Amino acid sequence: MKDANADTNVQIMLCDTIIVTMNEYWDLYDDSVPDVFKFMLHCTKSKDEQLAMEAVEFWPYYVVDPNKDKLVFQDYLSDLCPVLLQRMRYTPALLELIDWEKDDCSKAPDKEEDVMPLHYQSRTENQSRTEKSDSILEQDADDDETKWNIRKGAAGALDCITRCQELTQPLLKQIGPLIVNFLGSSDYLFVYFVRKQHTKQTSNKEAGLLAVGALCATGYELITPQLPKMVPYMLMQMKDENILVCSIACWAISRVSLWFDTED
To answer: What Cα–Cα distance (Å) separates residue 182 from each residue in 17, 19, 155, 197, 251?
Structure first.
């Protein structure tokens, strides 16, 4: 019987080999570029998260290299964009890690030290709080490094593609309609019970908002024509009862915040 795990391990090693060698020895793949792209696309779709995480790194590595042919990459955007959006959704495994009650801060009162203006604190209090904040930030950074996943990898790939000027317009043409469908979707992907008769739902909407934020990696200008309609929508999602939608909406609106200064 064929060992599926062995096949997956081989694919992981092959992805890693291509990524490691692509900067210095890409010419070796000249006759196989379409096959490389199709293979990486296939692996990015994989249900095996380790394989998908390895493969998704290929896309940003390719686009950030000024010596790579962006026209070749452009030909695969129509296939890649739906895959990246799909991979930006929360997986069941990630949702299981969420403590819905603990992570929902909407009902928790603000602490006095959190809302007190900084200049009202003594130098000792300020220094102590700064040191504590630095410690927390360092800890959070360490945690983030150990919690890298395909969702973050896909969002990072989209972020990098957006930064490539040769690809921004073709990218927007392909991914724009997909994001609109995600944002307007009422098809809930997962339902998790926190308590009896209490459900939490995550929809395409959350991934769509994440994609909007990723498109603003270098500024909001890329989606300026859509912002008059998009901003009210994002502001509305900031009130969503689902903490995942609410938090990602806050992040997305922060990425277009400078746009408000341009409006009368």
So the answer is: 34, 31, 15, 27, 17
Give long-range contacts, CB 8 A cutoff, 24+ apart: 124-128: none
Q: Kindly give, in sequence order, each residue whose CB lies less than 8 Å from that of residue 4, ignoring residues fewer than 6 positions away.
A: none
Tokens read off for 125 = 């209090």
The model carries a pTM of 0.70
pLDDT at site 105: 54
Strands of 121-195, DSSP E: 188-195
- Rounded Cα–Cα distance for residues 209 and 89 (Å): 10
Report the topology of domain 4-262.
Leucine-rich Repeat Variant (1.25.10)
- Please state the domain extents for the chain: 4-262
The average pLDDT across 149-178 equals 89
